[in-house]
Design goal:
With about 280 residues, the protein is α+β, with helices and mostly antiparallel strands. About 20% of the residues lie in helices and about 25% in strands. It is globular.
Length: about 280
Amino acid sequence: MSKTEPRDKPVILRVGTYNLFEGGLANLADHNRPGDIGEPDLDDSRLRKQLGLLSRHNFDVVGLQEATWGVHSPELEKLIAAELGMRWSFVGRSNFYGCDLATFVRTGDNLTVEHVEHLTGAPFVHGLTNVTIRITGRRRPIHVLVGHSAPSSPGVRHLEAETITVHRHLDVIYLCDHNSAAIDDNPKTTGLDPYKTAKKLDTTPAQELDAAGFRDVGRVWKDPTPTVGHGTPNEDGDGDHLAYRCDQIRTTLPTACITGYGVELNGDKWSDHRLVWAEFTIGR
């Protein structure tokens, strides 16, 4: 976002959502080399590659899932903010296995952060971050929600979606690893675990969000590219995986505001999820 745009000119806002897979760190068995930030027993080499991928998109807002950095969280938050050129950052704690949520915002003359709150109570398994951003000259703020839905429970995911809909009258951009399929997904399931597959392909949460006016940007853009299903960084062999649009960007902004969308295919070696991005052109 340019710092010198006229106050009446529409603003282009680029956002991304990315599940890092175990914080972008190497396997625990490989934590025997110092990382570039000098922390003992921390290999951040995979995270560095992910940051290179993120940097190329020049995002204004990024939501990260599985920021499983533990005691290293403050140092890695600063590292990522510096590498991405983000002046504002926040890490919200997860209730579940340390899978924290991290948000980074490129603040400047035209974009400021007004408020942040992080919900950790039921029904949210990993919590929900709500960052209120303000575009200079625009009357209504934009609420950026960053989430990571329940990993194995369609029922809890539905409750999470129902709770999210309380924001339906606000201007929202929702960045989330939904852990469940999009309405238009039609993946191959032959040979896959039927128990897990049935849970992941439950579209009740997606239907709930759709009904409340949270538009699925990938569906609006008619891009069916799966965001999971290509394996994990530490996996030997290809394996059998369910390929579907797990990671989604949703919005209550008018469809006309959506001016770009894509799924990054060049980081498959670094996470079991793909980076998803969207561009919004927002009037003031």
